[in-house]
Amino acid sequence: MLAFDPMKAHLYSVRMHASLENRHISGAERLVGKEGVEEAAASLVRRALDHAQGSAESIRLSVDLVDPDQVHFGCLPDVHTFDAPDVESARKKALQLLLLAGVSEDAVRSAMENLVAGAAPGGGNMRGAMLIGHRSGARFEPDRAKGVRARHMDYSPKGRAELDAALCDQGIGGDRLRDALVLAAKVMAAPGVLAELCWSDDPDYTTGYVAAPQLGYNRIAPLKTRGDERGGRAFFIDEDRRQPEALLRYLRHAVFVADSIGRIFPPERFKQ
Ligand code: AMP
Question: Which residue from 20, 68, 193, 256 has the least number of CB within 10 angstroms?
Fold first, then answer.
C-alpha cells in the first residue's frame, strides 16, 4: 500500500495525457505521497499503452507537489445501477432523476440535445464539461470548445482498497468507474452544482450516469447507442446561487481525496 498520511497530506499530482494519431485518447491523474510517485507514473503509462482505442503514440506525464491547504478529504456517493431495455427508457430514467435533483425539464433537454449533437462548436466532443443553468438550460461555461475540466481528484489507499473490495463483491469494476465516481464526488461537493449527467464519448461504452448529492451516483445503461462517438458531461448549476468564479476555482484547483466509500447497491432492471 502506498505511503499516505492524511494528516500531513503532502501530495503529488501525477498526470498523464496520451494521444494516438494526434488525437487525445486518455487522460488520468493520481494523487499520491512522495513514495507513491514512481508507481503511479508507471501505472498511468501502462494505462496509456494498453488503451482500448490503441496503444498511445505520445504520452505526457507531469508531476507537481500540491498545495496542502487545497486538500479536502471526502466520501464517495452511494452507487446505484439501472439497466434499461433501450436508450430511450434509459434517458427517461436520467430525466426523472435529474428532475428529482431540482433540474428543470428544459435544462435536461438542453443538456441531452447538446450531448447528442456534439457539445463543442462544429458538433465535436468537448474536452471538459458544459455548465448548464438548472432552470433555463442556458450554457455558462467560458469556453465552449474546451468546457470546464475538473482536476485533482483521487482516492487515498484506504478509499481505493475499500472501493475495490465493494465493487468486487458486486461483480463490477474497472478504471472507468473508479475515475468517474471520484470525479462525480468532487463535482457534487462543488459550490452551486445541483447534479451531473454524463455519457462517454467512447463508442463501445454505453453506460452513463446521473449524480446528485441527495441521489448518489446512478449508473444507467444504455444512455447511448453502441458505435456513437459523441458524449460528454453536463454540470447543472443553481442559477439562483451562481458563483462562477468560486465554482471554476474549486473544480480546477481544489484537491479532492476520497477516503471512504458509500453503499453499492445491486443492479436494478426496469421497463419503461
Ligand atoms: P469519459 O468519461 O472519459 O469518456 O469522458 C466523457 C466526456 O466527459 C468527455 O468527452 C469530456 O467532455 C468530459 N470530461 C472528461 N473528463 C472530464 C473532466 N475531468 N472534467 C470535466 N469533464 C470531463
Answer: 68
